[in-house]
Amino acid sequence: MIRVRYFAAAAERAGADAEERPEDTLASLRAALVAAHPALGEILPRCAVLVDGERADADRPLPAGAVVDVLPPFAGG
User: In this prediction, what percent of the chain has a pLDDT beyond 90?
Assistant: First the structure.
């Protein structure tokens, strides 16, 4: 299992601050998150997604115990 943490608008759309997920790649995780939380589909393409604190490509494997952060775009400067 991996841990997905949602921040700001992503948490609002997901209805949670965090959850455990079984997906094993970032691409499969993105698809599963939109299926589980349709409101995330509106903002997920614009979100930064970090795996264990680093930006990651869609084909990156997600090892058991990984932490994935979903960070929506933030306003400000």
Answer: 87
| Alpha-carbon dihedral sign for residues 35, 4, 12, 15 | positive
Q: How many CB atoms lie within 10 A of CB 45?
A: 9
Residue-by-residue DSSP string for 4-58: EEE-THHHHHHTSSEEEE---BHHHHHHHHHHH-GGGGGTGGGSEEEETTEE--T
* Token reading at 57: 């490509």
Dump pLDDT digits (tens) for 13-46: 999 999 999 999 999 999 999 999 999 999 999 9
| Average pLDDT across the chain, whole number | 93
